[in-house]
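Changelog note: in this version the structure field was regenerated for every chain. One regenerated record is shown below for reference.
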Amino acid sequence: MTRTVLAHAAALAALILGVLLAGDVGALLKTPLNAIVVTLAILLAAVLAVWDVVGAKRSQPIRYRGRDRNKKILNYMIRVLKFDGQCVMSSNDLSWVAGEARDALFEKARQKSLALVMPRPTDLSRELENAGAETYYYGDRDFRFRSRFTLVNHARADAWVAIGHGDSGAHTIREVHAESDPTVYLADDLYRLAKRHVAAGATP
């Protein structure tokens, strides 16, 4: 991301410097048309730079470390659950759910906007199912997804996915917002595969 910021800052500086070194700035901006063209060129370069930097920022993974790691992860998930639209959540056992996150999950379930993809049912997943959530159990005691994902706005043009994985040192969450990114399709494929698994009668 630092490279992106520096590249756009250099390009914008070069554009402004080029205008200043073009000769008599007053003559260059003498006519309204010239002034408009130069101003629009600088503004366009600035807007594109900000757009690219924001995109690079969003693509950076979020890493949670330290004693407050679990609390920060929980707050992140609460924010995700408060997004409007369908939410497909892959979780091993929902053991992270507590407090406000529990309330947000049940609200999603009541709105028929929550689908759970899990290896096995738990007491909480059964409660959410009774509240209105869709549940798809794909595995058994010996198999579960190594990564966890949350797919937001499934099957829509603005679909995006958050994928979490970690170890004892840090937990990393990467958001993918580009519909054309294969990561979004992979998450959707796993969701649809779990649905087919259940539809075929291979439930645990």
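Spot check on this record: The mean pLDDT is 78. DSSP finds seven helices and seven strands in the chain.
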